[in-house]
Amino acid sequence: MPDSRDSQLSSYDYPLPKQRIAQAPVEPRHNARLMVVPGREEPIQSVRHRHVWDLLEELQAGDLLVVNDTRVLKARLKVRRAGGGVSELLVLEPRGEGLWLCLARPAKRMRPGDALTIDGTSIRLMVVSEDSASGGRVVQFPADCADAETIEGLLNECGEVPLPPYINRHDPEDVERYQTRYADRPGAVAAPTAGLHFSDELLAGLQRRGVQLARITLHVGLGTFRPVETEDLTQLELHSEWIDVSPSVVEAIRTCQGRVIAVGTTSVRALEGAAQANGGVLRAFTGPVNLVIQPGYRFAVVQGLLTNFHLPKSSLLLLVSALIGRRKLLELYDHAIDLDYRFFSYGDAMWIPPEAVLSGAASGV
User: Fold this and answer.
1) What region, left, alpha or beta, does residue 306 occupy, with left being phi > 0 and alpha being psi -120 to 50 degrees?
2) What gap in Å lies between CA 194 and CA 218, rounded to an integer?
3) 265 to each of 105, 118, 147, 201, 261, how far by Cα in Å?
4) Structural domain spans, the chain
């Protein structure tokens, strides 16, 4: 029976002790804990507690894991203003001809026409305009910094890994650790964090078991940093993100002999966005999507999900609730907190097998 509270943002809040927010990843990657969600006909008490390495037993030959191969840019730049003060830019997305949308801090000190210099270099930038939709600034970079691939060299030399604000420690190892092992296509400003759990050894073991891997791309962008503020979720709109779902991925899903499992909410959003762009039928798609997935959404592609534990009142919490139900999800989160699970980007994982998905929520291809 529909629950009116599912459409209220305040219903997706939960108390989280600060000590449950993971400040560093576990090593090796696959040692993170794994909460296995019970089937929809099973009591919540039948939840199982394993480790990500145990996906070798949880997954089956013929299953298809869909992963996001986006690569995180070193997108945080320190810049000096003309008066000598130091500010910060978070480079988000290209706007053509060397123009980039950036989040600026402090934004009020970066006005259109202001000259900036990347700290420690002679590279000059210019604030071109304000962006009312994001609250950010459009900044002119050198003309050859036209896209993620061409700006990556500059960012590798001058930038820093843009760890989320709730991670207080920074370590040189984050440059490698805040990337998935299959990261390939530059363009993200945050990692698709469920994929951070896959080590080379686990990926090889899954391949030997007969589990297939397909790669989509979703460049995690501004939407990750913008909190949901719309209480009436029927009116919710999200910032668009660029995706690429190739013909080979569509074919792999069409011919899959097992279950279609998304690794992370970004893979869900890409697959379902590509399907919604084509009338509910999965076809190859490249371009922006701004799909909102919340309870009541009928999935066209995804049948199971590996995901992390997400922030309160976030669009990611809505998405996972669409698969297993808001009340069940929050009850599982309370259970995870009591058992000292680690939350957010460097935290532990949750495995939602198809038998745990709400009846009628996921139809598959």
Assistant:
1) beta
2) 14
3) 28, 34, 25, 23, 11
4) 4-72+175-356, 76-158
CA 302/CA 320 separation, integer angstroms: 12
Q: What is the pTM of this model?
A: 0.95
β-strands 349-352, 33-36 pairing: parallel
CB burial of residue 30 (10 Å; 0-12, 13-18, 19+): buried
Q: Return per-residue pLDDT of the chain as tens, 365 residues.
A: 568 999 999 999 999 999 999 999 999 999 999 999 999 999 999 999 999 999 999 999 999 999 999 999 999 999 999 988 999 999 999 999 999 999 999 999 999 999 999 999 999 999 999 998 888 999 999 999 999 999 999 999 999 999 999 999 888 899 999 999 999 999 999 999 999 999 999 999 999 999 999 999 999 987 766 789 999 999 999 988 899 999 999 999 999 999 999 999 999 999 999 999 999 999 999 999 989 999 999 999 999 999 999 999 999 999 999 999 999 999 999 999 999 999 999 999 999 999 999 976 644 44
For residue 39, what are its two tokens? 């089937």
Residue that is written with structure tokens 């013909």 in the block: 247
- The CATH number of the structural domain formed by 4-72+175-356 is 3.40.1780.10
Q: Which residue stretches of the chain are H helix?
A: 55-58, 148-158, 174-177, 200-209, 247-254, 265-276, 315-324, 326-338
**Is the distance from CB of 140 to CB of 126 less than 8 angstroms?**
yes
Distance CA(322)–CA(206), nearest Å, equals 28
Beta bridge partners of 165: none
What is the DSSP secondary-structure string of 144-165? Answer: T--SHHHHHHHHHHH-B----T
Which residues fall within 8 angstroms of residue 328, CB to CB, at 6 or more apart?
37, 44
Rounded (10°) angle between helices 315-324 and 326-338: 110
Which amino acid is it at 149? E
Choosing among 3.40.309.10, 3.90.550.10, 2.40.10.240, 3.90.180.10, the CATH entry for 76-158 is: 2.40.10.240
